[in-house]
Amino acid sequence: xxxxxxxxxxxxxxxxxxxxxxxxxxxxxxxxxxxxxxxxxxxxxxxxxxxxxxxxxxxxxxxxxxxxxxxxxxxxxxxxxxxxxxxxxxxxxxxxxxxxxxxxxxxxxxxxxxxxxxxxxxxxxxxxxxxxxxxxxxxxxxxxxxxxxxxxxxxxxxxxxxxxxxxxxxxxxxxxxxxxxxxxxxxxxxxxxxxxxxxxxxxxxxxxxxxxxxxxxxxxxxxxxxxxxxxxxxxxxxxxxxxxxxxxxxxxxxxxxxxxxx
Length: 262
Hints:
Layout: E1 2-13, E2 29-40, H1 43-101, H2 112-118, E3 127-129, E4 132-136, H3 143-152, E5 156-157, H4 163-175, E6 181-187, E7 196-197, E8 228-232, E9 243-246, E10 253-259
Parallel strand pairs: 6-10
Antiparallel strand pairs: 1-2, 3-4, 4-10, 5-10, 6-7, 6-8, 8-9
C-alpha cells in the first residue's frame, strides 16, 4: 500500500472575556494547518484484477461449452453414418443372397449381375482358366528376362500341373499369330536332365509333353546347350506334345501365371 501526506485546515475560535488583548467586535477565527500521513489503498487496481479474472473465467466457460457442443455433434454424425453404412451393407448382402439362392447348382458361382463383385477375377490383360490367370506376352525376351517380367506382375512363368492345363495352353498358343513360341517355367540349368519347375518341384515324368525327339540339348550352334523349355506349335501336334528345349538366352514370348483374386 502507498502512503500519502494529507493536509487538513482546522478552524479554532478564541473565547471571549479575555482582558489581556483587545476584544474584537466578533469572534476571530484562527486557522491552523495540520498534516499527517495516511495509507491509501489502490482500490482501482484491486477492482481491475477482479474484473480480469472474471473475463478469463467467462472466456473459458464459453470455450468449454463450444467444445462440448462440437463433440456432441460429431458423435451424433458418426453414429448416423455408421447406422446408414450398416443398413446399406445388410441390404446389399440380402440382394446377393436372394439372387444366389435362385441360381441352379452347377452353374457359375454367382449370376452375371453380381459375379463381378463376388467371384474371382483376373487383371486386365490376363485370361482366367481353372482358377488361375494367364498372361501371354506379345514381346520376346530371354528366359531369365521373361521370368523377371512375370514376377514384376506378381506372378511367375507358368507351371503345368495337369493335362487339362496343357490342353488350354496349347489351344491359346495355336491361336497366336505366326505360331509364336512361348517360354514356360521349366529348366534343367542347374543339373543336366534334372528338370525343375520354377516353384522347385521336379517334373513328373508321367506328365510330360515333349515333342518327338525332345529334349535333345542341341549344342551345335550354341555351346551352352538347351536348358529352358518353350511351347511351340510346329507342323501340327500329336497328343498335346509341343514342348521343346531351347537355349535360355534366345528371345521368345512367354506365359505367366498367378492365382485368381478371391
